[in-house]
Amino acid sequence: MSPPAATLETVTPVNTGMSFKKDLAVKPLPTAQSKALAELQNQWDSFTFAPIRESQVSRAMTRRYFADLDNYAESDIVIIGAGSCGLSTAYMLGKQRPDLRIAIIEASVSPGGGAWLGGQLFSAMVMRKPAEAFLNELGVPYEDEGDFVVVKHAALFTSTLLSRVLSFPNIKLFNATAVEDLITRPAPTEADPNAVRIAGVVTNWTLVSMHHDDQSCMDPNTINAPLVISTTGHDGPFGAFSVKRLVSMQQLEKLGGMRGLDMRSAEDAIVKRTREVVKGLIVGGMELSEVDGANRMGPTFGAMALSGVKAAEEALKVIDERKAENEY
Ligand SMILES: Cc1cc2nc3c(=O)[nH]c(=O)nc-3n(C[C@H](O)[C@H](O)[C@H](O)COP(=O)(O)OP(=O)(O)OC[C@H]3O[C@@H](n4cnc5c(N)ncnc54)[C@H](O)[C@@H]3O)c2cc1C
Fold first, then answer.
1. Which CATH superfamily is domain 75-325 in?
2. Which residues are in coiled coils (predicted)?
3. pTM score, two decimals?
């Protein structure tokens, strides 16, 4: 579909009282007819793209992005990290609850986390049964090797999952955006009068986050949400973000630290313990291994998918209660 043609009407921005000419003298562009791909073939000598003015491209992007920033400033659920666990969580939530407004915040330009390759940069992705149930749900083909299945390339899983998640109208992925902090509200209990609940996230462009030490005046943005699901992976420059912050804000005493590799026990532990760690904050995927001191698991990905399924289940158990608590 062709973009709307540039027009010349005068625009008065809301709240500023200023008027400006929306465009320089631009003649309205004719609307191009859509064509089938077959109509293009063998016609390359006469081929030309539909006309465009550069400002139309800018507006097509910025109008949508700023509308999304506006809409998702109050989200129902924020998922931090678009790795295999975060995306699996988003898929399950998007499918079951089209009424929820779900923002995914991903620090990297490219979503997908560590699930574009198998171990040691090999192509194939291994998932132990019964995680193939999630592959069946997505329609990702695999070879059955008895107790485990093998997807021929990890990127087939990640790209399929990503495309499903992005096609949900109630989910917005903000990539190249880092969560820099968590929004908190007092939620004292008898056991801990200083306890808080998590009530959203503090964000910034990742490139800005990386330059706080050498540039000043780069305040962040915020998203309010009654429930945050953190899936930022194991500890590293960006990883285990939320749980490290919980320790520094004295909501967790200390981290257990990821233990040595034991595939068999590690995967069960991650899935079983995926839970609301602090009120308003569910933790899943490898980030959880840092909380509980679970073993690392190496390149087997079933636990990431099923931790996402469990995180969505846990979220739906508490979302109504957290929403009711989220009045300010
Ligand atoms: C080469 C290779 C090596 C591996 N090594 C190990 C290993 O040692 N141990 C192990 O258990 N598994 C390992 N795995 C398996 C696999 O990487 C992980 O199990 C899996 O990727 C973890 O999934 P996740 O969704 O929990 O986190 P990830 O896939 O790591 O995804 C986390 C996402 O969160 C984003 N993120 C982080 N912080 C923030 C923030 N503050 N704001 C916004 N976004 C943020 C990251 O950019 C990332 O996209 C390896 C895989 C490969 C391919």
1. FAD/NAD(P)-binding domain (3.50.50.60)
2. none
3. 0.90
